[in-house]
Amino acid sequence: MSKLLEVVFENAHEPMIVTDKDGKILLLNRSYREFLNVQDVIGQPVTDVIENTRMHIVGQAGVAEIADIQQIKGQNMIAHRIPIMDEGKVIAVLGTVLFQDVQELTALAAMVAQLKDELTYYKKELRRRMGATYHFDQIVGYSQKLQELKKFSQKVAKSDSTVLITGESGTGKELFAHAIHAESKRKMGPFIRVNCAAIPDSLLESELFGYEEGAFTGAVRRGKKGKFELANHGTILLDEIGDMPLPLQAKLLRVLQEKEVERVGAVRTTPIDVRVIASTNSDMLQSIKEGKFRADLYYRLNVVSLSIPPLRERLEDLPELVSNLLKQLGESTGVAVRAIDEEVWHVLRGYSWPGNVRELKNVLERALHLMEDDILKKEHIWLPVSDEGTPSSLSVSTHAVRPLKQILEEAEQEALRQAMQQAGGNKLNAAKLLQISKSSFYEKWEKYQ
Ligand SMILES: Nc1ncnc2c1ncn2[C@@H]1O[C@H](COP(=O)(O)OP(=O)(O)OP(=O)(O)O)[C@@H](O)[C@H]1O
Ligand SMILES: [Mg+2]
Fold first, then answer.
1. 364 near 380, Cβ under 8 Å?
2. Which residue's C-alpha comes closest to atom 18 of ligand 1?
3. Which of the residues 65, 261, 364, 432 has the least number of beta carbons within 10 Å of its own beta carbon?
4. Ligand 1: does its nearest atom lie under 6 Å from the Cβ of 170?
5. Where is the Sigma-54 factor interaction domain (predicted)?
């Protein structure tokens, strides 16, 4: 045997043996010797060295045995025994052992299957927890305004800059924030959203920054991490930043400057590595003028600013949005639309969409419930009264008596919608009109989204 072949044989990972036709050992590689714990056995009968061997039988019969189970040292092995022929006669037999234990292999296969299941589960869970379920390709619209904004945002996503997203209610601010995170180098880190307006002022500080053990009565004994700490190595979305109370604005400014947080009641600070995206639908410059928002914080946040145009300024996006939203809604409601009447487009284009894409989505969802066949018609599109020429959803009385809970919920939803419209999309003012608290407004608003 050439030197190379000898070296390969000797060092092969699999245990290998070569015998002559009578079962006398000619070669036994290191792996096999180590497994059998034998040294120099060349020339000995294989039956003396390896239990349950059939090398000598194969040598006599000249018929290969593939994948035969052979027990050696209490382990089940898969053995291949191949006669090597020369001019019709067996001159040697090559034996290899594939896996050292079949049970081990089965267990391994089962383990791999289980790990695969677990991996799928964790991947899904991770995505869910990171919350970044939206990507740029899910932000639809062919209008130049939107396309340019998407392109710019994609570029911004790669940097670590703080971003301020402004835009009317329902324009897709949260969608953009998600997509920026998903496109950034922090995408494997957490994405944490805090709605600064929905949390009562008294709780916001501990929500954001956490608290130490015994910081106040009722505090969980071991203290609690704040959203900033939870967002470490990821992104935090400070939604409705315009509604943040002034004292907290000062604290937030410090966090952005020092890159460390101080839990309520803590003596030490904790360093954090968090990218901040803030969003608002209020006019920040106006709030600054009125003394409701700190100018220094505004400039800290507004390193990169993205302003999402309202839907009425990009009505070209309607076809793509409608088809996309109908597809989404079709999945959740099980109602498919085969065709859309031309008049529908006329109605949709004639409306001012104060609630933007979210309102469009709600209008379409309602339309799906009203459809009798699979054609979307003008009469299925219910828009509020104030836009001339279109019927109010409240004035169209429902024909059948339905569960009271449903009727109440619809009335509540409609009231929120109208209040938002009157308030020009400002949620704080909408809450005032309805004479309910800001956080209770948010709670209800989010319930119907
Ligand atoms: N360009 C778009 N393409 C597809 N869906 C969109 C688009 N813009 C918004 N949406 C959808 O509209 C809804 C509202 O979007 P989002 O929650 O991001 O709005 P928002 O600006 O954060 O609103 P708010 O100020 O009320 O919080 C979501 O269901 C979102 O998926
Ligand atoms: Mg939002």
1. no
2. 172
3. 432
4. yes
5. 139-369
pLDDT on residue 14? 87
Token duo for residue 354:
């104060």
Structural domains of the chain, ranges and CATH numbers in brackets: 3-99 (3.30.450.20), 131-309 (3.40.50.300), 312-396 (1.10.8.60), 401-449 (1.10.10)
| Averaged pLDDT, groups of 10, the chain, 449 residues long | 87 92 95 91 94 94 90 85 92 86 70 81 67 79 95 95 94 95 92 89 89 69 85 94 92 93 88 96 91 95 95 95 94 89 94 92 92 91 62 47 83 88 84 89 83
* CA-proximal residue: ligand 1, atom 9 (nearest): 172
Strand partners, 352: none
Structure tokens at 171: 């324009």
Mutate-to-test residue for ligand 1 from 143, 171, 446, highest number of ligand atoms within 8 A of CB: 171
C-beta 358 within 6 A of ligand 1 = yes
Cβ-defined contacts of 413-421 (< 8 Å, 24+): 413/448, 416/441, 416/444, 416/445, 416/448, 417/355, 417/359, 417/362, 417/384, 418/384, 420/169, 420/354, 420/355, 420/445, 421/354, 421/355, 421/384, 421/386
d(CA 140, ligand 2 centre) in Å: 17
How many CB atoms sit inside 10 A of residue 448's CB? 14
Specify whether the CB–CB gap between 231 and 180 falls below 8 A.
Answer: no
Q: Tell me, what DSSP letter sits at residue 137?
A: G
Whole-number pLDDT of residue 312: 95
